[in-house]
Amino acid sequence: MATFLYKLGRFAFRRRHFVALMWVALLTLAGVGAASAPVAGASSFSIPGTEAQKAFDLLESRFPGMSADGATARVVFKAPEGEKMADKDNKATVEKTVKVLGTGSEVTSVDDPFETHTVSKDGSVAYTSVKYKVSGMELEDSSKDALESAAQDARDAGLTVEVGGDALQATPETGSTEVIGIAIAAVVLVITFGSLIAAGLPLLTALIGVGIGVSTITALASALDLGSTTSTLAMMIGLAVGIDYALFIVSRYRAELAEGREREEAAGRAVGTAGSAVVFAGLTVVIALVGLSVVNIPMLTKMGVAAAGTVAIAVLIALTMIPALLGYAGRRVQPAGKKSRLLGGKRAAKKEGKPNMGTRWASFVVRRPLAVLLLGVIGLGAAALPATSLELGLPDDGSQPTSTTQRRAYDLLSDGFGPGFNGPLMIVVDAKASDAPKAAFTKVTDEIKGLKGVVSVSPAKPNKSGDTAMITVVPDSKPSSVKTEDLVHAIRGTGGEIKADTDATVLVTGSTAMNIDFSQKLNDALIPYLALVVGLAFLLLIVVFRSILVPLKAALGFLLSVMAALGAVVAVFQWGWLANLMGVEETGPIMSMMPIFMVGVVFGLAMDYEVFLVTRMREAYVHGEKPSQAIVTGFRHGARVVTAAAVIMIAVFSGFIGSSESMIKMIGFGLAIAVFFDAFVVRMAIVPAVLALLGKRAWWLPKWLDRALPNVDVEGEGLRALDEKRRDGDEDRELARV
To answer: What is the secondary structure of 9-31 as a DSSP string?
Structure first.
């Protein structure tokens, strides 16, 4: 592989006009596609194989025209202090609002609270449900404006009015912190390279790669049913790995220049050596992201595949466009150890010969490996302790900031009707096989009324054919609570007895039941997913490092870092530690997909540093150095770059903590803290400590396996052989002259 990539790097350097034009053309094509593509609606949310999904599908087939996936709005009214909603003026205001809301072209139905009895017991709060033909993301602006205008008119009449539901759903904003993250990355690159030109190359190529990836996702969003979160995730990961991969190659290019090589040769060798590490690091990330498809949740699969595509683009750009741009930069990118005059080049020259920080740190770890190992493991173990109280769920309006009308509507409903009113359960009774459907509906209603934790049960609403009915159940606990989950299981538990007596099937659905089933499916898939991703990556790393213990150590170190990161997420988003600093207004359960998502993404990103840092050690060991000396050599060449790459990745991920979307905020924080733990504790401390303790055993591989494995030549042995051939050729020509 090293020889192929070496030739590719030299080709890109020589044919830089062609390579640059190709990538610019791809960016333009993707941009035009994104600009001309139809606006994507909300991504459909389905969980194949779950009871909630089966009930949802049954509703769509048995209750045609009800728009089960259409947007809903709950307009909540509260009377002034000392008044009731039934008072003449207040009632007239509500009825006028209901009438105005019903005139919308996309509205299918509006309930009158005085007819549907949706007025609180104390008479101070009432609400009307507005149902639409299309989803919240597909609603026209005129419908949203009409909803907000009707609410404002009722406010002007003296009522407190708030609007909940997904009808006013907005596209999440990431805020200015994303730009700050990129700015920090730029500063780190300038400090690392000591050159504005060299620092600009990784940023430029990363932005081009993300531009192509996100534009392609936008262009295909409508056709492939991709949500807004998909492009945000692709941008987050694409930026981070794009900068890092380019950083690795530019750094190696400068090191090759420092050894006296010509620029084209240095570009080829940089792509042949660091590029090999980039390819395998990118493969681990792609495997981890594409592996999310084993969960069998379409939304998660699409997010993983789209992000994996962006990572693949980042790898290709690093291997081709970076050497092309290095050709354009010429002598403006200087050898390693040299800085431009503007950035203190003269001062840097005086420090030549002094061991760098990576060398000094590695020497310390090699002398005290056991102490460093114990300290690192104990520290990460302590950080992971909060994960033992992990509670999973999905965010609802109760997790929104208190400044939003959705959150205020949620609180008004909780105060007026009880916390369970914000997460009613929808019971679907399929009595098609029953001889007495009405009796079956009555039995189901009576059974549910007798369960603990039920506030109210609505009368059964049968469809036109009378073989299926809907029953609404209001729990006495909030949607995300364990009590509500127990109630869902209790209702489902009665289904067997009811089916035996009436031949009717009882299914529980609704947003609350969907969330419960979603969390359960993710929990069930975690172990198989972990085995698949870690297993495939383990085999890949055996090929790269030609060792059994090094990949095993890499996998165990990853588990430490991901558990510590989950502990930090629980401490901030569930316990509320540093919540104000992170902009977390409401603590609660951790997003259900967070554990499995972090396992996938963090594993892929963690292997970036493992591959780049340990490949340098392996390269030194293969070239004849002792194991302890190879560790120091790997750190001398790689520690500065890995540190810079980790800081950049942390900065980019931290930029998404400012998002208005709670899921993006949590993912941004989780990935940033995971990279911190993995890069600075696991890879920079635990890894060299373990390798120092293992010595030569770290690189042991059974002879039969060594013969069976393909030789991918990450260390660049093929390039060394190429040098010897050239040297022999030069000597032959010299002898011919003599």
So the answer is: HHHHHHTHHHHHHHHHHHHHHHH
